[in-house]
Structures are given as C-alpha cells and as structure tokens.
Amino acid sequence: MPWQNNGGNGDRPNPWGGGGSGGRNEPPQFDDFIKKGQDQLKSAMPGGAGGVVLIVLVMIALWLASGLYRVETNEQGVVMRFGKYVDSTAPGLHWHLPYPIETVEVRGVTDEQTIEIGVRGASNRSESLMLTSDENIVDVRFNVVWRIADLGNYLFNLADPQQTVKSVAESVMRELVGKERITPIITTARGTLQSDALLEMQNILDTYESGITVLRVQIIESEAPDEVKDAFLDVQRAEADQQRLMNEAEQYRNRIIPEAKGRAQQLVNQAEAYKAEVVARATGESARFLSVYEQYVAAKDVTRKRLYLETMEEILAGMDKIVIDGDAGSGVVPYLPLDQLTKKKSEGEE
C-alpha cells in the first residue's frame, strides 16, 4: 500500500502530512508544500542561488543563439516579427530576434520553376483553345519558366504565386493570339509570340510587385483543333496555292513590264530619230530651193536651162542614149555613141 495505516481505526492518513485522529482530516497546507519544494530545489543545485542564475544565463544565451541563421548563395531570407515582414537578407550569416519574437523564411531563388498551360491530357483542355483575329480557333500549348527574384514580395504580395503566374500567362497569350491571323500563329509567328508574351507578362507581374522574374515562354505546339484539323489543312493548302499563283503573277508582271517599257522607249527613240531626219531633210530641201530660187531670180534663162539639164541627166542616167542634132539636115545624121564611150571609160578604169 502507498499509504500506511495509523493505528487500528482503519482510517487512511492525510498524504499532505496532516495525520488524522478520530477520523478527522485536515486540509493540505499548500504554502508549506511550495516552500518545501523550493528548499529541496536549492539543496539539489550546487552553489544555491548562484547556480540558478547561471542556469538562467545559459538558457538565455542558448535562446539568443537560436536566432543565428545562414543564407546560402542561391537563397534569400525574409525576417518576420510576429508574422509581419521586417527585412530581406542576402547570402551570408545573419541573426534575428529568437522565436517567438521573430522568425525567418529562407528559400532558394535561383531554382527555375515551370508552369505548363494546355498540355495534352489536362483536365481543363479549354485553356489552350484561343480565338484568332480572323475568327478561327487555334490550340496553343506552352510553358512558362520563372524564378523568384524578391522573396519578400513573393511571400507577402501574392496569395497563390503559381496560380497568379498561370492566370497572367494565359491572359497575355489570349490577347496576343487575338491580334493575329491563324496562319502566322501556326507557322512563322511563334518566335514573335514568345518574346511579346514574355515582355507583357513581366510588365504585369511587376505592377503586382510579385517578386517574380519570367525567364522564358516556350510554345510547345500551335495548331488547329483536332475536330477541324483536316478542313483547316485543306484551307491552308488552298491559301498556299493562292500565294504561289500570286507570286508567279508578280514575277510575270515584273518581267513583262520592263520589257514593254523597253520596247516603248525604243519606238519613242525611233520616232524621235525619224522626226529629226525628216525635219533636217525638209530644212535642207527648203534651203536648196531658196538658193535655186535666188539664182533663178538673178539669171532666169541660165537657171532654167541648168535645171532642165540636171533633170534630164537624172532621168536618163540609166538609159541607152543617142544624140541627134536636129540642125544637121536630112541627108547625113551625125551619130555619137555615148553609151559605148561610157562603157569603154568604165572598162579602162577597171
């Protein structure tokens, strides 16, 4: 038994030191109990009260030392006092007021994080379906790669950083796709979309003071939805044929127009040359006529006879000629073979 019987009355004694008699129990003396405990504690410690002080000082020193913390080169630290932001700390050894006054949050800020939007097999596939400027639907799947730039803003200005980045990325991509036609989006405009989306996302996140840096926007795939892909490919082929025919027509135009201009210029040049020739000939003929006319006025008979002879010489130049003197009489006809003389002269020159 934990408590011994006192006498034969069968009554259990008071465990607080007040033994009963005649069945009467006294209330416990709490002051005596506390005093007795203090005495026992003092007797157990070396040096009495000085030992208590030493232990208290050691405990305080350990408590203060618990405020030491290290931030690595790829991390940032955030100090919070009773849960409120106080300061951001760079890599190195630091100290803060120990718990529960201040706490510190240390996270890596160089680690890249990726958010996928519109990936195949996702439950919400509609997030990748976007409307283009020519009222077509395009399926755009892309990734956003980002990291923490300012841990303080990241922790205290965003309730859900992951969802915020995703919502901003989807909103920006929808806006950019809505300004483009579907053909460039699925062919040549991917690079432009990626760079424009990165800049626009960063601007929006900076206005939120999110403490996030967007590193890359990567378009994985952009194509027409599966339900209309075959029809769209037919349209795309028709547009390609149209563009090819337009290019061929443009090449023909570029070839035929210079040729036509060259021929036109040639005709103009020939006309100008003919004009100059006709004018020059007419001017010469006019000058010659005026010269003859002046000679005719000065000596009419001589000029008339000279013109007659020149004209006859020109008319009879290629003909066989016989000259008969009309005044020679009817008996003897003088004969002068001019054609033979001309022929002999020509043979002698040869």
UniProtKB/TrEMBL annotation:
Chain intervals for the UniProt region annotation (Disordered) = 1-31
Q: Which residues cross the membrane?
A: 44-65
What Gene3D superfamilies would the database entry show?
Answer: Band 7 domain
Question: What name has this protein been given in UniProt?
Answer: Protein HflK
What are the protein's UniProt keywords?
A: Coiled coil, Hydrolase, Membrane, Protease, Transmembrane, Transmembrane helix
Which GO cellular component terms are attached? Answer: membrane
Family from the record: Belongs to the band 7/mec-2 family. HflK subfamily.
Q: Which residues form a coiled coil?
A: 228-277
Give the way it sits in the membrane: Single-pass membrane protein
- What biological-process terms (Gene Ontology) are attached? proteolysis
